[in-house]
Amino acid sequence: MRFTKGRRCRSPTLKALLFLFVFFTALEITRVRRSLAPPNIDIAPARPERIYIASLHWNNERILRSHWNQAVTALATALGPQNVFITVYESGSWDNSKGALRELDSALEQHGIRRNITLSDVTHIDEMNAPNAGPGWIETPRTRRELRRIPYLSRLRNITLEPLQDLVRNGEHFDKVLFLNDVVFTNNDVFQLLNTNYGDYAAACSLDFSKPPSFYDTFALRDSEGHEMLTKTWPYFRSRASRHALTTNRATPVRSCWNGMVVMPAEPFIATPPLSFRGTPDSLALHHLEGSECCLIHADNPLSSKAGVFVNPNVRVGYNGDAYKAVHPDGPLLSSWQIFKGLWDNRFRRWTTTVWFKEWIVHRRVVQWRGEDKHNNEPGEFCLINEMQVLIENGWKHL
């Protein structure tokens, strides 16, 4: 009789708890689905702005010809030839990226769009065989002196900014710098990105995808607390501020991002001294730590702490046509099941995992490095990961 009585007492409680769980989960899913369905209208720039567009390319012939060239030409035409300057740097591709970019050059010429398209014959092998003096070269565990990937990429990115600085010295003004990866995008994507947080930001980034639903650029993205992504799928973030903004489809605060397409005010890049891309010091890299130049730029940008860095969840780009279509479906972006699974997977991981050990290893090595020289300092510690990356003939390698 006692067993039966206890069982009867527990049953209403369990039913009530189950009812509350289902009720509040349904409310949460409904809220998220509504927020993920913004009005399907054309977006126009909030006000005319002069945009400097910068891009790097290496072995991108396929996407250049299938999507990118046409998208860039359409964007520049929509912005107005008088309001845009395009700089493209191609670095030693072995496909026919050079031919594709010559076609872009011709198309931009026909539309009266100013540009600087540089086609370099210097390959990775040439870079690796260059005299290994100066920053960026380190002794690696393979007992070789090798060129680090990030200082190499930083140098190329800084080359794309040189025409901007020349133009400004000659009296021209630019409001924003738009950095474009080899991604599929539309004019609306760029216009929405420009309007992120009503145009008030130190940087605004898209979300990028290669194999949806998995997010692509995990190297540069850090949430509002400086943590790496919790998951590669929605809602991605560990920090409450980033996660809440994303699930309500608002400009999402982060410490850093790149994600295929990023727009930043031009002011820091034309200041004295100008903001520039960099890698971590070689002496720090010897502690087996590396950070993306696309993250470190936000750590160095004086506007980051004042205006904030944001991801715009409504701007989604793809590294191929299929990926772009997948993140721009005709119906809802996420099903009710995907929302439920994403929310609870995120909760479970937050409740059962920690970033403390991974970040402690990085911090311990940074502290050791700082102790080696009183001048050693790295403001972008949140960008660092436990890796060493070097250039190789056909790309780059983890050591």
From TrEMBL:
Pfam hit, one: CAP59_mtransfer
InterPro entries: Mannosyltransferase_CMT1
Protein name, UniProt field: Polysaccharide export protein
Species the sequence originates in: Polyplosphaeria fusca
